[in-house]
Structures are given as structure tokens and as C-alpha cells.
Write a structure and sequence with these properties.
- The protein is mainly alpha-helical.
- It has 12 helices and no strands.
- α4 crosses α6.
- Pfam families: DUF924.
- InterPro entries: DUF924 (IPR010323), TPR-like_helical_dom_sf (IPR011990).
- This is DUF924-domain-containing protein.
Amino acid sequence: MALALQSRVLNYWYHGAVGAVAKNASLASRIDWFKPPKGSDEYIAEQFKADRDAVFQSRLHVDELSQTPRGTLALIILLDQFSRQIYRKSPKAFEADPMALSLTKSAIERKFDTQLEPLERIFMYLPFEHSERLADQERAVQLFTNLVNEFPEDEFMQLSCQYAVAHAEVIKKYGRFPHRNEILGRVSTAEELQYLADGGGF
């Protein structure tokens, strides 16, 4: 059951190209991860909501899958990425972030990330970028800068690093992501409202 879940998550997310994806995916196809095609939220909810909820609420399969690099990656994608699509515009979109970040930190401590392809490492690192703690944001910038240094010709690595820097700048300035305020019932400052009016995101 656990390995079946890992396979389903990774095969969906990487279009069946697990492992070799970094060498084969075009820039255009990679962009779909951050600008999901129409209907993808509904599909992910239909296919993975029960799995995501079981992993988050009762840690189903966590002990087993967190023992391997790609098992951990599957858990992180399920908690970090799928939560955002299944529960878009709901506080539940962010509720699994601490769990995903904990898995990421543990994986890096065990050097699991070094056993993955570059495009797999990106999604292992993203929980740092989604955190509202500045120290985590700085760690994200460091990790993505390392990827750029390792793969200087890869345009997507450069783009990912730019996004990491942009996320960190928002946290440095506001101490949180203003676009989450309304969803989480937080009161925005005048400065944050102007940022949002100007099209600020994340």
C-alpha cells in the first residue's frame, strides 16, 4: 500500500518520468507545476484527497515511506503541493506545511536530496520556501542557489532560485505572506493591502 501510494504520487507529478525527469522535461512542461492546467485541482482532489488526509491526520505510511529518498519526496509532494490544490483558498491548504517541512529537514539531514534528480530536489526543498519563518526562507535560497551552481545551464533551476529569492524578500519585508491573510483570517496592514493591490503574490 505504501509503495503503491509513492508510485501514484510520483508518476502523476512527474508524468511517469520519475528519476529521469530532470533530463527530459521541457521548460514549458515544468511551468505547469506552478500554473496548473484547468481541472488539475479537481483531479488531484478526486485521486489523492483521501490519501493526503490519511497521511496528515493519522500519519498513514509516513514511517515506511520516510525511510527512502523518493518515499519522502512523495510524502512532501502530497502534503505540500497537493494540499494547496485540494484545499485552494482554504486554511487547510497550509495546515500540513509544518509536517512537510519536518520531512524535508529530516531528509536533508540524511542526505536524501543528494540521491535525487534536480527536479525532484526542487520539490523536496519547497517546504522551506513556503514557510513564513525567515530562517527557513534563507535556507531555501541557499539550497536553490546550490542547485543553480550545480546546473548553471538549466533555465528552470535559475527560475526556481529567482522564486526562492522573491519569497524570501516578501518574508523579510512583511514577516508573512500577505496573500494568505484573508484566507487565514488575519488582518492586513495598509502596506500589505497596497502590496496585494499591486499584484503581489505567493
